[in-house]
Amino acid sequence: MSQTNHTDTARQVILQEARALELLADSLGDSLDRAVSTILASNGRVAVTGIGKSGHVARKTAATLASTGTPAFFIHPSEAGHGDLGMLAEGRDILMAYSNSGQTAELAVILQYCVRYAIKIIGVTKAAESLLGRNSDVIFLLPDLSEACPLGCAPTTSTTMMMALGDALALSLLSARGFTLEDFHRYHPGGKLGSRLSSVGDLMRSGEEMPLVAPGDPMGQALLVMTKKRLGCLGIIEDGKLIGMITDGDLRRHMGPDLMAKPCSEVMTKNPTHFEPGTLAAKALSVMRTKGITNAFALDPEGRPVGVIHIHDLLAAGGA
Hints:
Strand content: 15-25%
Oligomer: single chain
CATH class of the largest domain: Alpha Beta
CATH architecture of the largest domain: 3-Layer(aba) Sandwich
Structural class: alpha/beta
Distance between the termini: 45 Å
CATH topology of the largest domain: Rossmann fold
Shape: elongated
Radius of gyration: 29 Å
Number of domains: 2
């Protein structure tokens, strides 16, 4: 087979699956709103299940729900009848089940348990009259389309629709809960993503590490503090609040024989750039690069310094 034919086959698969997603979007009706309302009204978790390729989709949906503010876990339908049914909290948890046919034998035990113990069921299937369809409190009916597989066997179109539906539900819940970037970072502290979502408060130097002096302190004394703290800056505080900042650039501008005798108030830059501790590291880095500064203080709502951030700390944490 030629390379052109391979590409033609691949393009046909992608276009067929894309068309399926368009039809799925048009077929949602009120099912998504009902599913979101059902989950928000629950004080339990969402148990997501499926067998075979549908099971792989279920695992991904459970992970996406959990990472976006909806407590969720995957339950294997075959293992459910061998003790894992105990993972489901009676009258609290919700079962979300994926099954193209809705008739897989493995689902029967877990569905019967949920019906018996008042565990609401959100079903995703093509067959409204199937075991899953008839027992679902909320049902998502997938468009009855053929698989993109040339043999019509390998789950492709159906699992693409299931995957997209799981994402749509998770992100609708995220929006409904008012889930923020800060919340997202709480669940994703590791790796590049966690670094990008770090805040100034996560990275700043605080407490005794902060180089702080009073406006009336002579520069000779202040430079000893600046050298000891090794951050290349000084915060000038009055009544506990930051009123100015001295950097290497300020020292160069005021260089002269009388520099050491000058009070810090004559050398400092007033109203320096500062951040709230909750400012995302990526945003702080962008501001500091734009303004050409290497240090900035983090202030509490009353204007008191709670930490100092160096641009190298932001770069080391992956804020770029």
